[in-house]
Amino acid sequence: MKPTLLALAAGMGSRYGGLKQMDGLGPNGETIMDYSIFDAARAGFGKVVFVIRKNFEKDFKDIFANRFKGAIEVDFVYQEVENVPQGTSYNAERIKPWGTGHAVLMGAPVIREPFAVINADDFYGADTFNVLNSFLSKNETNTNRYAMVGYRLGNTLSESGPVSRGICSVNENGILETVVERTQIERSGGIIFYKDGTTKVDIPENEPVSMNCWGFTPDFFTHLEKLFKEFLNHNGQNTTSEFYIPFAVNDLIKNKKVEVEVLQTTAKWFGVTYQDDRNSAILSINNLIKRGEYPAKLWV
Question: What's the CA gap between 289 and 156, in Å, rounded?
């Protein structure tokens, strides 16, 4: 059974200044997402499911619906604020969907096999998809055993502004103990910190972090729906609160319901959180092509 890739592409990229998932950075207009799909297909993934919004469905499908024919199967699901479990309610003034955990839950109707989750605007590198495919293939009949690809915090920051990261604690056996979503992480004066209210809290350079690169089996959807219902019961009237993947995973670990292995990778991450990150991403892609890690044209 080939695993599926669930690509979270519903964010409109407000800090970036546009729909960054469609921004052509490669020599033939390839997006960062193109490179992830290319890497997933050659690693052995059989399908990619895009989580998108209805308001840019046409533009997105015009670019990606037929782009990967012959390489990987393609499907689409939609993340909208009204897509909540039956029996729950929320503030009618809410505009934004409910975050990355909510986005993953949108894949439940179309995913029946082990699956990986990525952000559409992050470059993860070929080895990341190889280690995820290996893990998912070995654990396809297991339940409650998941994976996260870990990255070094200092290598995941943007020079253009603060970022959000899942800060991780990992035991001596490589098992995730906690993952806590922190926002407003940045480097200043050689020190990395996040803001807790008005207080700056330092974080070590080598701290392992989650970049929303996960491996799950379909039983995760059952856990996720239950936790999302609980989240809405407490936060449904809040117009800005978000249900993040790390919130759900951390709760499941804390209550000893799942085990999450932290996978090591030789791949280097980069992303385009801000418009100013674009030139750096283009240079990184060009260097990978020069080293022969990617063809100059991905899709023939």
Answer: 21
- Six-digit token string for 171: 């035991």
The CATH number given to whatever domain includes residue 75 is 3.90.550.10
- Please report whether residue 296 resides in a domain: no
The one-character DSSP state at 68 is T
Longest dimension (CA), the chain: 54
Specify the amino acid at residue 111.
Answer: I
CA distances from 149 to 40, 212, 258 (A): 14, 8, 16
- Asked if residue 222 belongs to a domain, the reply is yes
**Residue 17 to residue 225: CA distance in whole angstroms:** 32
* Cβ contact 214:146 at 8 Å: yes
**What range does the domain containing 227 cover?**
4-290
- Angle of helix 32-43 relative to helix 126-138, nearest 10 degrees, comes to 40
* pLDDT string in tens for the chain (300-residue length): 899 999 999 875 444 445 555 678 899 989 999 999 999 999 999 999 999 999 888 888 888 888 998 899 999 999 999 999 999 999 999 999 999 999 999 999 999 999 999 998 899 999 999 999 999 999 989 999 999 999 889 888 888 888 888 899 999 999 999 988 888 899 998 999 998 888 999 999 988 898 899 999 999 999 999 999 999 999 999 999 999 998 999 999 999 999 999 998 888 888 887 778 888 899 999 999 999 999 999 997
For the entire predicted model, the pTM comes to 0.90
* Tally of domains within the chain: 1
Residue 49: inside a domain, yes or no?
yes
Domain presence at residue 297: no
